[in-house]
Specification:
single chain, 287 residues, alpha/beta, 6-stranded mixed beta sheet, 14 strands
């Protein structure tokens, strides 16, 4: 079955946040929301999330899920803010988020009070788990490689793939974060590409190479044919060599330090200190 998808694109982080719903029941999900963050001042705001809420009201939707495809390293999630505005909506991510939490608890010296069992989220999806969005059947696919917790949500005739794939002219995700693995990414991509050719793929980011218009929707068939990293029958060994060589040239995302600390907590900030202010840590010479 087909789902309707509308997207809010945040140019400051190049992030596409998707609102998907079943037209029959008006049941909806939000994927990969953005909390606006000014890293120079440390201030947050909710313009991007409010745009999503405006669409929810415009289409008279009931949001059941606020989903993450993974713990992002390039933007903060707005999941707690959205949950506070949407009665009954539940947050969720893939169950391997626990591995990501373990990987970063020492980097940020989070201490015994930080739990690495994923219970900051309302639900942890297992690979192959199925659920319904109104009358539309949904399936969860574990698609690691960029991070261990990367998850693709197949919702009717659409699949939300996070950072695993970009538009064909930009290629595929990096694999040099803790727990990343280029060989796993290759296998995950081919799992996605085993879906029917006409499956619509919705991506989490776009960087408009060559100055083209921003885009975040493609198809399995187009990725198979045209993706510059994986299309046209690229072998696993060739992909791994390309990905590992390319990743060595990449700098860290500008917001990785604040983003990861917040996103592994399902979007919550660290507990306020005695003055009522929450603080993020900057690990020196650790990443």
């Amino acid at each position: 079955m087909s789902v309707i998808v509308e997207t809010v694109f945040d140019e400051s982080t190049n992030t596409a946040s998707h609102l998907a719903w079943d037209s029959d029941t008006r049941k909806a999900m939000i994927l990969d929301s953005v909390l606006d963050f000014d890293h120079k001042s440390g201030r947050t705001s909710c313009e991007s999330a409010d745009h999503l809420l405006q669409l929810v009201r415009k289409h008279d939707l009931t949001v059941e899920w606020i989903l993450e495809t993974h713990a992002h390293a390039d933007h903060l999630t707005a999941a707690p803010y959205l949950k506070s505005k949407l009665d009954g909506a539940r947050t969720a991510i893939g169950s391997r988020i626990c591995e990501v939490q373990h990987a970063f608890e020492d980097v940020f010296n989070l201490g015994a009070e930080f739990r690495t069992n994923g219970d900051q989220f309302d639900h942890l999806f297992e690979d192959g788990e199925r659920f319904m969005l109104g009358s539309v059947s949904c399936e969860v696919m574990n698609t690691p490689g960029h991070t261990p917790a990367c998850t693709t949500y197949v919702v009717g005739d659409a699949a939300f793939v996070g950072d695993t794939l970009f538009m064909p002219d930009f290629g595929t995700a990096r694999c040099d974060f803790p727990g990343g693995d280029a060989r796993e990414l290759y296998q995950s991509i081919h799992r996605i590409l085993s879906l029917p050719d006409e499956t619509r793929l919705f991506l989490c980011h776009d960087y408009a190479p060559g100055g083209r218009e921003f885009a975040w929707e493609t198809t399995v068939a187009r990725q198979k044919a045209d993706n510059i990293h994986i299309g046209g029958g690229t072998t696993e060994d060739a992909f791994v060599e390309m990905r590992e060589t390319r990743d060595k040239t990449l700098s860290m995302p500008a917001l990785i330090i604040p983003s990861v600390q917040v996103n592994i907590r399902a979007g919550d900030f660290p507990s306020p200190e005695g003055n009522g202010i929450s603080y993020l840590k900057v690990p020196l010479n650790a990443l």
